[in-house]
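FAQ: What does the model actually see?

It sees only this:
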Amino acid sequence: MTFEKVWKNKVKVKFGAICVYFASLADLIKMKKAAGRPKDIDDLKYLRKLKYLRHS
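And it is asked to produce this:
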């Protein structure tokens, strides 16, 4: 996963007059899988559930 790929899929969120960019949910899931740390693996179940609920 490259920065360019993550930036292309970024999500823009506006907080007042400030725009903040976040990795897309799909890219966040990929990054968590690649990291493979126990906390990241634990986060995956919640992120996958969120992804499922968004597409239901």
